[in-house]
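Researcher: Quick test of sequence recovery. Tokens follow.
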């Protein structure tokens, strides 16, 4: 059995904005759809992207 060590960033606030980015976890629609098929390395890459998106949105006053 393949164990997953990278936890999903989902916080159960599932709403896509006009750019198809989730307002809860900051993943794109495609990243959400692919999450379970990604290996841990790819999941880590997605998480890095979500952090950058969150920081950009926070600086723009669009995220808390």
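Model:
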């Amino acid at each position: 059995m393949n164990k997953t060590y990278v936890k999903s960033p989902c916080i159960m606030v599932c709403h896509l904005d006009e750019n198809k980015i989730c307002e809860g976890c900051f993943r794109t629609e495609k990243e959400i759809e692919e999450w379970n098929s990604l290996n841990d390395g790819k999941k880590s890459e997605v998480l890095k992207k979500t952090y950058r998106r969150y920081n950009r949105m926070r600086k723009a006053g669009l995220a808390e």
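Residues 40-59 form the longest helix (20 residues).
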